[in-house]
Amino acid sequence: MTPLLVHLPHDATAIPPDARADFLLSAEELRSECLRLTDRHTGALYTDGLVPADFLRAEVSRLVVDVERFADDAQEPCAKVGMGATYVRTADGRPLRALTPERRAELMARHYWPHHRALDEAAAARLARFDRCVILDAHSYPTGPLPTQLAFGPSPEIGIGTQPGHTPPALRDLAVGFFRAHGYSVGVDVPFRGAMVPNACFGRDPRLWSVMIEVRRDLYMDEATGERHAGFARTQAVLTEFRAELLRLAVT
């Protein structure tokens, strides 16, 4: 175990059979929606060479439950477009599923809260051992716009998300400088803002640092098929090097 924890909220594709029954889409429509919204290959991009203790991955598709969102829709801005912790709209605004409050609570109990308990425990273990936990919140995003974006227009190749109180300037500046030095265009809190902070630490423990990295998908995959292309190897190598820089920061 190291002070660095990689968080992978959106690379899973699993939709359990009972959850599939909730969706209003055909098989082909659901496949297309998954391709649009899943951060495919981010597990391989961000965790190459890591032991399992140093990353935490959501086990089901974000279309079932999105562990990155606030549990309370009243606190979650993405809920305004039907994409809170339990999505009810597609990326283009069509009805995705209709959930009763009871069904939503069941999905949250099965998939959302266990993930957050594991995240709390992983952070607590690092804080106890190292007096520091740095979370790399690992994402990708499509070249076409999503309704949850903060900005529309030319998209940076790398988006860096920050969280007030948990992304100190040294961490933000390291990320910006690192990716610019490697030749990437970089946006800060564009096209998305925020970074995952465990519930037990959120707004409470400044020893918990977090930064979100969003890699534009055309850098490493064919967005029409979901398959990796020749850019994958370089993107993976750069992210592996970035992990090493984060770890150096964490221990100093």
Notes on the protein architecture:
With 252 residues, the chain is of the alpha/beta class. The chain has one domain (4-251): Aminopeptidase. Helix content is 33%, strand content 13%. The chain has a six-stranded mixed sheet with strand order 2-1-3-6-4-5. Helix 5 (169-181) packs antiparallel against helix 6 (232-251). It starts with a strand and ends with a helix.
Which properties best describe this structure?
252 residues; alpha/beta; Aminopeptidase; 6 helices; 13% strand; globular
Shape label: globular
Distance linking N and C termini? 17 Å
Structure class: alpha/beta
CATH architectural label: 3-Layer(aba) Sandwich
Radius of gyration: 17 Å
Give the strand order of the largest sheet, numbering strands 1, 2, ... along the chain.
2-1-3-6-4-5
* CATH class call: Alpha Beta
Characterize the main sheet.
Answer: 6 strands, mixed
Number of self-contained structural domains: 1
Helical stretch count?
A: 6
> Helical residue percent?
25-40%
Chart the SSEs and their pairings:
Blueprint: E1 4-8, H1 17-20, H2 27-37, H3 42-47, E2 55-57, H4 101-130, E3 133-141, E4 158-161, H5 169-181, E5 186-188, E6 208-216, H6 232-251
Structure, briefly:
The protein contains six helices and six strands, in the order βαααβαββαββα. It has 252 residues and is of the alpha/beta class. It has a single domain, classed as Aminopeptidase (3-Layer(aba) Sandwich).
